[in-house]
Amino acid sequence: MDAMYVAFQGMATRAQNERPAKDRKQSYFLKFRRGPIPTFNSEGGPQEVEYWFDFIVKYRNTMGIPEEYLVEFTVYKLEG
Questions:
Q1: So which domain of life are we looking at (predicted)?
Q2: Global pTM?
Q3: In whole angstroms, what is the distance from residue 4 CA to residue 11 CA?
């Protein structure tokens, strides 16, 4: 079962990489935007910021969003 999952994941990754860069970026952004990431509005202290950012990094890693888009996409979730 795990081997099948890895095979399908590899096929999806290859298909994703064959698309033009602009389309890939848009697809990654839609994945990011639809995620359960809360908007950050500067309430709370440094621990809240760290928790929020760690959550974003974990989500990015789980969804396979390239690190090059991390800052650009994260800014979208800032408020105020």
A1: Eukaryota
A2: 0.65
A3: 11
